[in-house]
Structure formats: structure tokens, C-alpha cells
User: Fold these one by one.
Assistant:
Number 1:
Amino acid sequence: MTGFEITGASAADMELMRGWADEEGWNPGDSDRFAFAVADPEGFLVGRLDGEPVACISAVRYGAGFGFIGFYIARPAFRGQGYGIRLWDAGMERLAGRLVGLDGVVAQQDNYRKSGFRHAWNNVRYEGVPEGAGGGGDGDGDGVTGAGAGAGTTIVDAASLPFGLLAAYDRRFFPEPRAAFLSAWTGLPGRTALAAVRDGRIEGLGVIRPCSAAHRIGPLYAADPAVAAALLRRLARHAPSGLVSVDVPDANPRAAELVAGLGLAPVFETARMYTGPAPDLALAELFGVTSLELG
């Protein structure tokens, strides 16, 4: 390990990590790193060999009791030499005493179990052009009743709602408050965040962002499949080609049925795992997770 050191990630390192994730086929968002840095500026670590970045990991703290591991990558030429496990240990040490979650490739489940993680569910990435979404482009009519969303349900620009309502709604789907992250995630340039509202209540929330390949939708929360379908179709209008992907938890069987029924096909799968009992989340209304990298 001579010449190997672990440091915090710089802005340039964050862009490098995005490129590595792209090479792994993860299709990261073009501007995800800006929201990630807001979540926990010190939560991104880089392993350097003689000054050259060769591995990375994120170990992001949320609130007082939760953390999430992501971006665990060693460059192909440096795998199997112990650099990755050194970073892993550093990331887990940073999250010591917390419930920790991750989304890992299914083939690595046994290795994560050795580190104390337990399987909770799988996230399956579905990709395609949703049936009924219409043509690509920047979308229109976001303030009118969403087709199929149910009588009295209106789809609006999420930015038009009091942010406190959005943060409280998001809290139902995440173990700790994450207001700063959510503000950046929904408001970065190039993204569209839509909410479904009925009688003054938020009944759904979805965000679409440009990526290297298909635009990714996440989170996708909805009171029922009809609201989820209306949001997904409307969000897809903001993808120039109409092609979108969404990471669907199999813990909500209605979610997989919905996206498959809209013509999307599975292309990738990860395992959501935790170091302790899975947190109590509104899984029946979770149709797409926010991010495989930060939860």
C-alpha cells in the first residue's frame, strides 16, 4: 500500500467519479454531483496511488442516525489489490454507529452480507418510452389535471408548492430529513419536478433529469398507480427522445406492473441492503427510488 492515501473528493474528483460511474453503465445524472455535494460535502472519498485517483466511494451522512454507501468503484487496472477495501473500511468508519444502506449489484450481495448488510428488496431499472406519453420535447400543460390521475388531481410544477410541504412528503420515503439535498435535487437547471395535488394534499412527486443515456426519473412517489402513471407520462415529455428509465423497488409489486404495462423493460438490477432492520417507509407509494448512489 506504499503511496496509497485516502482524501476527500474535490469538485474535479466529483466529475471524475461521475465519469467512472458512466463507464460502469450506471447512467449517472449530468448534474447529480451538485446535489450530492449539498447532501454531505465531506461524504465523498477518493483513493490515490502516488497522487493518481484509482478508487472512490461515497459515505453520506443523513441526520443523526442514517448513512448511505455509493459510488464504490475501483478502476479496472487496480482491482484485487486491496485499494477498494481500504476505501470501503474508511467509508464504513465514517458512518459508524448509524443504520447504513446501499444499492449494490446483486452479484455482490454475499460480500455485503459479510460486512453486516441484510437484503431488503431489489431495485429493477426499467427503460423505454412510456405509452401515452406523447412526443418528446419540453412538455406543456403542467398545471392542468393529469390524464388518468383521478378526478380533482392536478399535476403542477413542484416549485409552485411551499417547500416545507415537499420536504414533509419526501420524509415519508426516506429514513431522515434531507431538505438541503431535496432542494438541490428538484431545482437544478435542466431538471423538471412535478407534483400531483388534490384538495391541498400532495399525492405524488416525480423528478426527471438528463443523463448520459436515457433521462432518469427519480424519485417517483404516488398515492396509487394512476397518479404514478400520470406523473411518469408527463415527466417523459421532458426527455427529448421520450426515452426514460426508472429504478423500481420490487417491494412495491404495483410499481413493476405499472412500468411494464407502460411498455418499459428491465435492463439492470441492484439490491437494497441495510446494516439493520429496514426503515419503515411508505413502500406501497414508492414507484421509483431517488438515486442508487445516495438513496
Number 2:
Amino acid sequence: MIKKIYIIFFSFASICHAAEEIKKQTDGEYVEETPWIHDFHSTVSDSVYMSAAWFDEFFTEEGSAQQNPKVNARIRLEWRPRSRDWNEIKARFRVKVKLPHFKNKVDLILSDEDEADQYQLPLETTHTQPEEEKFSASLRYMHTNGKNKYTDTRLGISGGDIFIRGRHKRYFNWTENSAFKVEPSIFYFLGDGLGSRLLLEYNFQEDPKTQYRINYSIEGSQSFSGIRWKHGFYRLKHLDAYTASVTSFQVEGERNGERDFVVDNYTVSYRYRFNAYKKWLFFEVEPFLEWSEIESYKTTPGIAFRVEGYFYKG
């Protein structure tokens, strides 16, 4: 076990060193785009944009001026080996289209993430349970989009199940360095029934480059006998203009169910993210340790490697 942990963290140190070499070679500037990189980025951006424009035309009044939709897409590749599973490779995508003919209050969202699974915390990246890939498509209507509050309703389909969800966010600034967020939501799935979730989050800005964050979520639904809960503790560090890190500790479990109160998993991780080569290309390395109920709380080391590309137009 000690040998596996050593190998994982040695790999992490090697990747960080490679990242520094990339930045040194580019001398803080993005290198000139090679033809195939430029063509790939343009092709993905253009194809997504044309699909969005085609969709938006259905809501254009005859004789009105044509307005171009705004499109943002994200493609992520991830390899997440751990001590008992070295074959976990995933590809993820998410496309968001802002439709101007709805006065920019309606988004079309397409992704391969399950909309029924809201249990993940905002900064969480590691998972103990196998993730089932489900395509989802939804329309989101923004009722309120202000500086300190946000309300939206989302209607769509996920994994073959139709759903509707309403969400409200509210921000409270106690001092210049402290902020608190409350995010209740209620949802209904035809297959799983009615459910609700509450997310609480506190942020403390220690200095311009360091922030501490604590969040807590609780969720219940008709499809689950108990209540799921999760805590997250984070230290966010802005290292320089191209790199950042997140040190985190998460604990999750359930209560008021058939097993009463139980802790499912503990996770400690260090996430190193850097932007290199292109301004739209990001890399991540995240070594982590898990202690899950499934593995009888044995130490399970792992590391995640990610590459994310962002495509936009409009």
C-alpha cells in the first residue's frame, strides 16, 4: 500500500514539473496555433454554433432582425486510476446555448451527465461509486439573475426520465472577506417522484490569492428512504496567472434511513490545475486518498488526470 501511494505522488510531482517546463518554454505566452489545433477548435466551435442557430430560428418572428446565439461547450477527458481500478477512463461534454430570441433568459443545455444526480458538491471531482453515463437535454428559464440572487426553472429529459426542477440562489456578504450562499431546490422526476435539496456555503477570503470554503448539502426524495448529506472543506489558492490549486476534504453519508446514521466515504485530495499551450486548454492533476464503506474503510489511493477544452462562439 505504501508503495502504491509513493508511486501516485511521484507521478503527481513529475506532472507538476512537466507543467513548469511547458510554461518556461512558452515564457508565459501562448504558442502560435498549429494548423491542426486551430482547425480542431474551429470545427467544434462552428458545428455547435450552427446547431444553436438552427434551433433558435424556430423562435424567430418573421421579419424580425436576426440575432446570433451564444454558445459555450466543454469537452473533458479523464483517466482516474486508483489502487483497485486502473481502467477508469471517461469523456464528458457539456454544451450551453443562450437563445437571444427569448431575451437571453432561456438556455438550451446538453450534456452526458445525469440531471437526477445533484448530490455532487460544487468543487467535488472524485467519486467512489461507478458513474452511469446518461444523456440529458433541458431548457432553462432564468426568472431572476441579479448580483445577489438567482432563480431558474429547468425542464428536460435525463436518462429517459422527464424532469422539472426549480432552484433559487441567494448570496449574503457579511464583511469584505466573508460571504454566505443559500441554495434550495425542488425537483420532480416521473420515475423517481418528488425531491428537494439544500446547499449551504460559506467563503472566507484570507488574501487576494487564498480562499477557504465550507459547504454542506442535504437531499431527500421519494425514491430514497433516508436523507443524503455531504460536507466539503476547501482551500483555494491562486498560484499565478496560469495555475491554481484546491486542497479538499469531503465526508458523506446518510441518515434517517434503514441504516439510521452512516458515513459512506471520506476523501482527501489536492487538485492542481494549469492553463498551457492554448488559452482554451486546461490540464489537471489530482492525487487523492479515499476511505469508503464499500472497501471497509481501507485506504484507497488514486490520481486523476484531466484535459479540458473550452469552445465558444457568438
